[in-house]
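Tokens in:
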């Protein structure tokens, strides 16, 4: 059975979720998170997409991005997650899939819901008891977005 075609629209944002295969850890050590952010920075430069929020959890990731062109979204995520998988498998002497299925993408209009969605992903560590406050969790965009800790990754969302 063929999979459903991904909805790709222009001038919108996407809430991206990618999970570890069988809910396995995709980040084991601190350097793993750092490597994913390094790759995210590299692909952001290569494809010129806007990044409005992110949260890297132990077994999944959330990104809120606006691709320059909608057809680039699959290329961005394929390159990013494939590059991380190669690095992870080499580091931990593993083979095979790291990610469960393909990434999920939900269309977000550039309205007030965009800010709600960014807030939702940044509070993910609090809901999962990984942190008491979102600013305590180093692998989400909260501190960079709201507390001025610039990391060179985030763009300012423009709500219509």
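Residues out:
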């Amino acid at each position: 059975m063929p999979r459903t075609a991904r909805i790709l629209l222009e001038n919108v944002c996407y809430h991206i979720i990618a999970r570890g295969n069988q809910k396995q850890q995709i980040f084991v050590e601190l350097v793993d998170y750092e490597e994913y952010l390094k790759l995210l920075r590299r692909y952001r430069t290569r494809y010129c997409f806007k990044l409005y929020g992110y949260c890297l959890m132990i077994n999944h990731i959330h990104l809120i991005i606006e691709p320059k062109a909608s057809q680039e979204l699959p290329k961005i995520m394929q390159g990013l997650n494939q590059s991380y998988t190669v690095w992870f498998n080499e580091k931990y002497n593993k083979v095979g899939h790291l990610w469960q299925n393909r990434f999920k993408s939900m269309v977000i209009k550039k309205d007030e819901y965009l800010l709600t969605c960014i807030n939702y992903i940044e509070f993910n560590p609090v809901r999962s008891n990984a942190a008491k406050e979102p600013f305590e969790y180093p692998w989400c965009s909260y501190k960079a977005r709201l507390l001025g800790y610039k990391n060179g990754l985030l763009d300012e969302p423009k709500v219509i």
